[in-house]
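Hi support team,

I submitted a single chain yesterday and got back a structure, but I'm not sure I'm reading the token output correctly. Could someone confirm the output below corresponds to the sequence I sent? I've pasted both exactly as they appear in my results page.

Thanks,
R.
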Amino acid sequence: MVAGRATMGLAAAAAALALGACRPAAPPRPLTPAQLVARDGGIAPYTAADVAFMQGMIGHHAQAVAMAAFAEPNGASSPVRVLAGRIAVAQTDEMDFMADWLARRKQAVPPRGASDHAAPHAEHHLHGAAGAGPMPGMLSPAQMDTLARARGQAFDWYFLTYMIQHHRGAIAMVDELMAARRAANDDQVFKFVSDVVADQTTEIGRMELLLRAIPRP
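Hi R., thanks for writing in. Yes, this is the structure output for that exact sequence:
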């Protein structure tokens, strides 16, 4: 009788195991953000839109630095020279950050443009999720030539007018990135674009004040 009960118990256990084997396995739990970062060697998830933005913004910043380089030789006023210097330093540092961000993710790092002032112009085609079309705010070769030829007060007017255009274009690029699905989820990207908007919005306000005191050439 005891042996019979043991046999029945073993049979029930075997049946339970067989039933369990027939049940579908529970789906794996999604990884937490921290687990994703650890899995990918410390690199947070990013999107194609993030990469295209960083690549495009390097060229965009390169043109701003080229514009700023005209200030001293073209006889800009002291306030405009100071502003141009700050823009050049800040955007050069930001290009270093973007190049490092891309390199760490084994993405192409575009060149920052030749020394020729017309090199980084509106024919760049790396921006936003679509990755096509001229970047917002970029000066045309004709505008860059006008800036290169201007002197003194006329230079101040063109520099401020064109840099306002340029900064507004950078902000539009950030807006385009933020509209892309799942873009800027990387904390580094989000902080960077937030700083770009804050800094360039502040500089636009400063430039508009300076511009009001300068007659149009």
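A quick pointer for reading it: The chain has seven helices and no strands. Let us know if anything else looks off.

Best,
Support desk
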